[in-house]
From TrEMBL:
Residues 52-98 are annotated as: Disordered. It comes from Ruficoccus amylovorans. Residues 77-91 have a biased composition (Acidic residues). This is Uncharacterized protein. Residues 52-64 have a biased composition (Basic and acidic residues). Residues 65-76 have a biased composition (Low complexity).
Amino acid sequence: MDLTNEQKAQVSAWISEGLGLSDVQKRLAEEFGLNMTFMEVRFLVDDLDLELKDKSGPRPDADLSRAPAPAPAAAPGDDEPLPFPGAEDDMPGGGQVSVTLDKIQRPGAVLSGSVTFSDGKTMDWQLDQTGRLGLIPRSDTGDYRPSEGDLTEFQIALQQELQRSGRLP
C-alpha cells in the first residue's frame, strides 16, 4: 500500500511521539481510512527506517544472568535457521533469534514455520489469510512468553527470511 508523503510524515511523527505499532495502525484507520494489518504497519515502520521507543524496561522476573541454551537442530525438511544479524550486540543473553519456514504449510496458514528465541525456547508461528501473525506454543514451552526484544527481533528476522526466500518483495 502506497502512502503519500504527508501520511509518511504523520507516521514518523507518531512514532517519534512514542506510539506503538497498534496505535499507529488505529490512527491510520481513523485519520486516513487506511486499514492495514499489524504486520503491514511493522513493515511500513521498517521501510521508513523509524525506531520504536521501548517503553518497557527489563522485566523484574527475567533472569538475565542465565546463559541461553543452545538452539535445537532444525527439524528434518526445515530450512536452516536464519540468525538475526547484529543481535548479539544488542541483547544481554546473546540475542540469537532464528526463524525457519516450513516446506509444507500448516493447515489454514498462508505461511508457517518455527522460531527459536534468545533463551533457546522454540515456538511455531503462522501467518493466516488476513495477515495475522500468531505464535503457537509447543508442549515443552507451556505458558512461555518471549521478551519484547525477542518479539521485535522475530518480526525483523521473519521479514528478512521471507525476502531472502522470495516470498516478499
